[in-house]
Amino acid sequence: MSKRTIQLLLLENVESLGIIGDVVKVRTGYARNFLLPMGMAEPPTEARIAELQAERAEALARVEAKRTEREELISRMEEVELTLVRSCNDRGGLYGSVTQRDIADALDAVGYPGIDIRAVRLPSSIRRIGSYEIPIQFDADLRVEIMVVVEPDQPLEEREEMEFDDEGELIEKPMVPAKKAEPETDKADAEVSEAAAEASSE
Description:
The model is unreliable at 159-185 (pLDDT under 50). The strands form three sheets. A three-stranded antiparallel beta sheet has the order 2-1-3. It has a three-stranded mixed beta sheet with strand order 4-8-7. It has a two-stranded antiparallel sheet with strand order 5-6. It is α+β, with helices and mostly antiparallel strands. A hairpin with a 2-residue loop joins strand 7 and strand 8. Among the domains are: 5-60, Ribosomal Protein L9, domain 1 (3-Layer(aba) Sandwich); 75-156, Ribosomal protein L9, C-terminal domain (Ribosomal Protein L9, domain 2). The radius of gyration is 35 Å and the shape is elongated. The chain has seven helices and eight strands. The chain has helices at residues 28-35, 46-51, 53-76, 100-109, 156-167, 169-172, 175-201; strands at residues 5-10, 23-27, 41-42, 81-86, 93-98, 126-128, 130-139, 142-152.
């Protein structure tokens, strides 16, 4: 064992490291700065390992039960499609965003409870209307992708029509020919005035 690592006996479950009663090898900095001062581990002895065997067995049973529950949950989620309705602008940009918490809460609401937000592997918050494939991952081998569809609270077509009516191109287009016709009218008036002036001079 190198000087950079140390063996410790876990006194409680530590995520991604082990369960109570496990003897694990960790970096000395992690041990000295976190595990030891937090009372989560101690140097292993045969006596302490023996003392923790019963608690370790109970913790292992809970871990196995939780894994079985997650396996069943993953199998049920293979065809899941969530629909979330959000307010947005006429171009589909959300007023706000859809977060890991929103997705976990939505899954809970449709019968998939107890999903930690860390299991929702959302690279970044969703900020636009659309469909997204989102991984749900509990362990390296417990993963499923669900479809999250973010829909507008009002049809985008109606929003576009309203915008065009108030300030868009549909109002401006009929005005363009009229603006171009004005110089031609002025020119015609000028020609008539010139013709009248010539006639009077004769």
